[in-house]
């Protein structure tokens, strides 16, 4: 019975070493798996349409992962380059004019294009800041991503009393890909210094991985608004 504490200590060390190794290996393995899965998916879509004389696999007689993805990236880049000149813009406008005449397709195309333009626009301020709002009841605070000021009809109707409204995205834990879009008064939002990436880590980990925070000397800390 005298060596029981040593056995427990050894088991504890083995468990800690295993958990440490799991933390190191699991994200790496998942990242590699997702990367190769995406490459295989892109290859399965593009490779069948590549003429044999332009396919490197035809000459080397081996499967080269990423060939289809590389060709797709090159073609998309060329299309983007051509789409910036006068002739390219004319072709794009002509193609869009055809799509806009199709009742169902035009709605799908317009929605998807708007989403991509919003996400990929370099000057976009979407999801570049994090904040706190009182949710679901006063005294309880939830982390949100700032999507931008209210616009259009929403701004016209909500800003009628002079209070500026801001759109925020409230994601759940631990999967922040779904959530609620809400419009709240700007004065009710407590802005945070953490980046959206750090906020996502905080959500996914359930609050276990909090970003480091060092207050700047001389600057007052944020004061939460009174409920």
TrEMBL record:
<protein>
    <recommendedName>
        <fullName>DUF502 domain-containing protein</fullName>
    </recommendedName>
</protein>
<keyword id="KW-0472">Membrane</keyword>
<feature type="transmembrane region" description="Helical">
    <location>
        <begin position="59"/>
        <end position="83"/>
    </location>
</feature>
<dbReference type="InterPro" id="IPR007462">
    <property type="entry name" value="COV1-like"/>
</dbReference>
<keyword id="KW-0812">Transmembrane</keyword>
<dbReference type="Pfam" id="PF04367">
    <property type="entry name" value="DUF502"/>
</dbReference>
<keyword id="KW-1133">Transmembrane helix</keyword>
<feature type="transmembrane region" description="Helical">
    <location>
        <begin position="21"/>
        <end position="39"/>
    </location>
</feature>
């Amino acid at each position: 019975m005298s060596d029981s504490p040593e056995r427990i200590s050894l088991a504890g060390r083995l468990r800690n070493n295993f958990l440490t190794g799991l933390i190191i290996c699991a994200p790496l393995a998942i990242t590699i798996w997702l990367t190769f899965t995406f490459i295989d998916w892109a290859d399965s879509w593009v490779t069948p349409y590549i003429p044999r004389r332009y396919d490197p696999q035809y000459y080397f007689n081996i499967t080269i992962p990423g060939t289809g993805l590389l060709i797709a990236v090159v073609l998309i880049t060329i299309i983007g380059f051509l789409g910036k000149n006068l002739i390219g813009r004319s072709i794009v406008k002509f193609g869009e004019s055809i799509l806009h005449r199709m009742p169902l397709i035009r709605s799908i195309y317009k929605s998807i294009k708007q989403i991509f333009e919003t996400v990929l626009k370099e000057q976009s301020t979407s999801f570049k800041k994090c904040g706190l709002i009182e949710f679901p009841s006063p005294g309880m605070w939830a982390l949100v991503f700032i999507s931008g000021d209210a616009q259009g009809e929403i701004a016209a109707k909500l800003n009628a009393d002079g209070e500026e409204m801001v759109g925020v995205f409230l994601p759940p834990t631990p999967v922040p890909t779904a959530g609620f879009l809400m419009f709240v008064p700007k004065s009710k939002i407590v802005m945070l210094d953490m980046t959206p990436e750090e906020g996502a880590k905080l959500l996914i980990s359930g609050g276990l991985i909090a970003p480091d925070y060092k207050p700047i000397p001389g600057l007052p800390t944020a004061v939460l608004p009174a409920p």
